């Protein structure tokens, strides 16, 4: 699924300046983000977990099973992002199975990388 | 979503004796499993990544973005499991958004645990 194309005319778009913290661990979590422009780093207790660029998503874990952020997201460059709340997230999952499969693919990739790190 | 209930009359059910290896890292991967009875441990290069019991799933990552197993699954007790291939997986995702949300929740939980391990 082409996320950039799907979210290109999304109504709720937000901007974050370079080096700003978009959210922090244990913050209340109400949105997932799809990056339209820029780069975002995700860290946990200062340890880098990954980075995302245009078309990438972050904050999706809070859509699924928690109201609190499990990591910190920081803008590495000026960021413009489509903001998706829980209701819209569920609506898109229901209307568009490819969106669900895309989110699962992103999570599977992250899990694969994390498992490799753990197993050394 | 109640996975045990959903898969209780699934046609393709397989059994694995205690201590048997269900699949190993880099094996060709064609199925996800839903445990109907028993317990399965998942390891990577000998390091435990987690265990699943009745109602739990394993092998789902291969449904999404790879044809090779990223971990090893071993029966800790005699296991009976519903076996789901890629076509059925995609069909259920399309027909049943709650299934997609359930798989995402399982993956989000695994990722949360993995991230905590990595961040120490």
Contiguous low-pLDDT stretches of chain A (5 residues minimum) are: none
Main sheet specs of chain A: 4 strands, antiparallel
**DSSP helical segment count of chain A:** 4
Shape of chain A: globular
Q: Total number of β-strand segments of chain A?
A: 8
Decide which structural class fits the backbone of chain A. Answer: alpha+beta
Give structural notes:
The structure is a homodimer of 120-residue chains. Chain A has 120 residues and is an alpha+beta fold. In chain A, 35% of the residues lie in helices and 32% in strands. Chain A has helices at residues 3-6, 61-65, 86-95, 97-119, and strands at residues 13-16, 21-23, 31-37, 40-44, 47-52, 57-58, 72-75, 79-85. In chain A, α3 (86-95) packs across α4 (97-119). Chains A and B meet through α2, α3 and α4 of A and α2, α3 and α4 of B.
